[in-house]
Amino acid sequence: MTTRQLTSRLDQPREVRRTLVPQVHYDPESFGRLSERIARFLGTARFLVYMTVFVAVWLGWNFLAPASLRFDPYPFIFLTLMLSLQASYAAPLILLAQNRQDDRDRVQYEQDRSRNERTIADTEYLTREIAGLRVALNEVVTRDFLRSELQQIMRELDAKDHPPP
Predict the structure, then answer these.
(1) Alpha-carbon torsion 102, 107, 113, 119, what sign?
(2) 11-44 residue pLDDT tens
(3) Which residues cross the membrane (predicted)?
């Protein structure tokens, strides 16, 4: 038997495929929620204050500390690298959060449109029903009309029973 025949047999287990890249399974929904939380935090005043304090401490330490304790001298290359790294992660997270918000907005728009169509259809139906009731009410005898007709008949009967002299 060839290896092809062995792999197509149902009574034999499949061979485990070895790949160089490990298979990582993650929940895209939970990752999306995490990215939204991070993006939401990046857009707050608290984050700006934290980053300002971080940069100020970094600059203060590397200006005022003794030369032997300074880890990032004047051109502050390491600080630039750290801020670039932070920005390179922040931008895709913000874009992912915006895409998720766009998806939610699109679903909300579709639901609103559907709800509006149903409301318009219901309103048109109720308008036709009210118009039908108005037409039907015009054909129904009202109490005043019936009373006047009965009074007319009674006068006619009285006139027949008591003819004028």
Answers:
(1) negative
(2) 777 777 777 777 777 788 888 888 899 989 998 9
(3) 47-64, 76-96
d(CA 127, CA 121): 10
What one-character DSSP code corresponds to residue 70? -
The count of residues in the chain is 165
**Residue 129 belongs to some domain of the structure:** yes
Residue 108 lies in a domain: yes
Overall number of domains in the chain? 1
Residue 165 lies inside a defined structural domain of this protein: no
Task: Kindly state the tokens that stand for 41.
Answer: 């935090």
- Measured CA to CA, the distance from residue 4 to residue 113 in angstroms comes to 54
* d(C-alpha 34, C-alpha 105), whole Å: 19
| pTM of the complete model | 0.56
